[in-house]
What does this fold into?
Amino acid sequence: MIKNQWYAVLSSNKLKEGRIIGAKRFGQDLVFFRSDKGEVSIMTSLCAHRGASLAKGCLTDGNIACPFHGIQYDPSGKCVHVPSEGIASEQDFSRFNLKTYPAREIGGIIFAWYGEKEPNHEPDYFDVITDNSFTHDHTEDTWNVHYSRVIENQLDVSHLAFVHHNTIGRGNKKLCNGPKVVWLDDNTMQTSANNEVDTGQTPKSSDESIIKSTNLTFKFPNMWLNHVADKIQILAFFIPVDDENAIIALRFYNKITGFKPVDKLIAWMGSRANKIVERQDKRIVETQLPKATSTRMNEKLVAADLPIVEYRSKRAKFQQSGSTSKKEEKAMHEMNTKAMYKLSYGLFVCTAVRGDKRNGCIINTAVQVASDPNRISIAINKANYTHDMVKETGKCNISVISKDAKFDLFKHFGFQSGKDVDKFGSDFPTSSYETAENGIPYITEGTNAYFSLKVEKEVDLGSHTLFICEPTFMTVLSDTSSCTYEYYQSDIKPKPQPVGTTPKGETIWKCLICGYEYVGEDLPDDFICPICKHGKDDFEKMIR
It folds into this structure.
């Protein structure tokens, strides 16, 4: 997710006056309700009292009332009445207050602000949604992938002749010129499919290509427009449900005749056609792994993927600029039991503190062994300096390594001993870790969750000690998949390559973004990848 952005999350026609709707957005269970004045409110759905869903509640004098005990919350999330305490109660019920999401309603679409800060700008949208000369029809479908996968599919110009060979991709136009990508503003990118039948010609470069009158425009964070013609436009917004699910909302807009009843019928027919095309995409995209995308993935991209590369790069910049500072983030962390989902047969950094000494090591065993009460077991080799620190202090943190991790993280914590080096010294950047409430560091770069653990029991296993621990805190740090041991071996650990694997024995520089390989002993400082347009900093020397 990109923090501090307005996301299109719900069609207005679903939220009638006096109605409450429960829906999952941003991985959270939320409730939407509309006051008798037509104003929309969004807040977390679980009552602070006993955790019942407010989606089953009712509206009373503009407030939402819990169906379990009648506790009322106003549109700002403030608890205004606890019936069991009486109408005359003067108690402070602020501990019951719920998190709310600022909302805007524009053109029949409800936008929700996702982030910790107050909104500092208004939603960015396409003018067609507020143009009353257009008539539209609306359809939705749920996809079993992260919303970023759905967006990238709509920016992919080279799949048309294959996925849609009998619909919008008819004509066998498999060769892709460009595509050209232009940024209309910092938030809006535009491209178009400029495909041809392959008769042996060389594809035109991006610079040689054009933006056609039928084009695709995308506005961050989650809205897309297919400009078919001046009188026909197809809009989509990609609703983030959770890490593995998204909803694509499609709208067919037209003003072909200018006569509303006829245009409405055309829009309805257009939506049926949209659904056929959308289902063709869904069948394929739901097979892609991982379910979410990022700038650095194990993919081999080509020139036709330029819109996807541009999207990923800009999204990464927005994620970085929209994130809070480490201190703000630490202050806002809440216990998040979804961190349990990040545990796997994977790899972890176990950190501990003894006196003034901070240390950590790589471990490959951290599993949940009981749910009630919640218990996690970790196994640490007795030869590790961290082992003795955990055994003596009875507490530690484990950071779950993700697929974003670089090999340097494994080298730093796994290829040297804390007896000889200070692993949290000057050679390990302070931006790569933070200190938890228990005073022990946890790793923030290349990880997706961390746990603070208190040792309850120890089991001697010979070479290792098995520590049975109570998790005193846990939270999710990112939505990137956990790094399994297999993934480390196949995708992170460098594979020895002898000098001279090229015919002339030259060095290979590999682009970490798209996989393009440059052959040469030295990579020029001003070199730009011909595929994804990234510079020298995103290349890695492959031969040692």
Q: What stands out?
A: Residues 34 and 40 are 5 Å apart (CA to CA). Helices lie at 147-155, 160-163, 260-285, 306-322, 326-332, 385-393, 407-414, 485-492. The mean pLDDT is 90. The first strand starts at residue 5 and ends at 11.
